[in-house]
UniProtKB/TrEMBL annotation:
Organism lineage: Bacteria, Pseudomonadati, Thermodesulfobacteriota, Desulfomonilia, Desulfomonilales
SUPFAM superfamilies, per database record: FMN-dependent nitroreductase-like
Domain of life assignment: Bacteria
Any GO molecular function: oxidoreductase activity
Keywords: Flavoprotein, FMN, Oxidoreductase
Annotated protein name in UniProt: Nitroreductase
UniProt KW Flavoprotein keyword: yes
Pfam family, one: Nitroreductase
Similarity field: Belongs to the nitroreductase family.
Residues of the Nitroreductase domain: 68-256
Reported cofactor(s): FMN
Length: 280
């Protein structure tokens, strides 16, 4: 088994995040017009693996495909998301594991006018500089390696979007755009009962919410977890008629990616297996 490593990850069409593995021996590798390719021996027939779709052929498994294909989308088309698709995604994601099978989750969907109202009200809060008042405590700042990864992400994303470092207005607009859910016509809110033990229930919410992202992908939908979407839970509760004693853990924006925008094609990086795995 050989590694396909060393390719860049943030160019549209570039498809070899470091650490991706080839199941077949790599015979040769190179670069044509800036695009990386690998020639692999697949069952004694040579194939060129140069883009995402034929890499999928190479990798085959549906699960691998879903995991590698999902990415956070930061530019959506206004095309509405059908409620049938959301129901099918929920049908699948409800099989996610939870502590003691307690399934401590509710999913409340904001679409149509409700989503537009939330986007307008969140944007307004952001525009007037209102500090976030989330139900679930959020990290205020990161240190050490976490800070490095956080800063790397911000730098790579803004560069990919063509936003200059000192273009403060464009940066502010990007952050305000989060409050419009990056144009998504639908947000899935993951809610817990206020009586529940919060840290542990949040593990369970992470479990179902990520499974929801994969299930939505299967419907052809893009997603992004949005901390920004839970900054003002009082607004979420009033617009979506959620009882005051529930807690809004996270919102996931859902919709069709606007692939004409760089914000929909950005790929984040990951540290390598060596950096995160240790056999004790
Ligand atoms: C709990 C959580 C909250 C997030 N909130 C935001 C957010 O408010 N704005 C944003 O642009 N991305 C947000 N993200 C997306 C992360 O930046 C993204 O998952 C990470 O950079 C990895 O990239 P990928 O999802 O494309 O693989 C959030 C992700 C998680 C898990």
């Amino acid at each position: 088994m050989l590694f396909l490593a060393g390719a860049t990850t943030n160019n549209p069409g570039e498809v070899f995040p470091s650490g991706w593995q080839s199941l077949s021996p790599v015979i040769s590798a190179g670069n044509i017009e800036g695009r990386t390719f690998r020639i692999v021996d697949r069952n004694s027939s040579l194939r060129i693996v140069s883009n995402y779709s034929n890499m999928m052929e190479e990798y085959g498994m549906e699960l691998t495909k879903a995991v590698l294909e999902r990415k956070s989308i930061r530019a959506f088309l206004p095309t509405p998301v059908s409620r049938e698709a959301i129901v099918r995604a929920t049908e699948l994601c409800r099989w996610a594991p939870s502590w003691g099978n307690t399934q401590p989750w509710e999913i409340v969907i904001a679409d149509g006018d409700k989503c537009r109202t939330l986007a307008d009200r969140f944007y307004e809060e952001g525009r007037r500089g209102a500090p976030p008042r989330p139900n679930i405590e959020m990290p205020i700042e990161f240190s050490d390696v976490y800070k490095r990864r956080y800063m790397d992400l911000g730098r790579a994303l803004l560069t990919h979007m063509g936003i200059e470092r000192d273009d403060k207005d464009a940066r502010i607009q990007h952050y305000l755009n989060m409050y419009r859910f990056f144009g998504a016509p639908c947000v899935a809110y993951f809610i817990i009962d206020g009586k529940l033990n919060e840290p542990y229930s949040c593990l369970d919410i992470g479990s179902i919410a990520t499974t929801f992202c994969y299930a939505a992908l299967q419907e052809g939908l893009g997603t992004i977890y949005l901390a920004a979407s839970m900054h003002f839970p009082d607004i979420v509760k009033s617009v979506l008629e959620i009882p005051a004693d529930k807690k809004v853990v996270i919102g996931i924006a859902v919709g069709y990616p606007d692939d004409s925008k760089p914000a929909a094609t950005f790929r984040s990086d990951r540290d390598s297996v060596d950096q995160i795995l240790r056999f004790a």
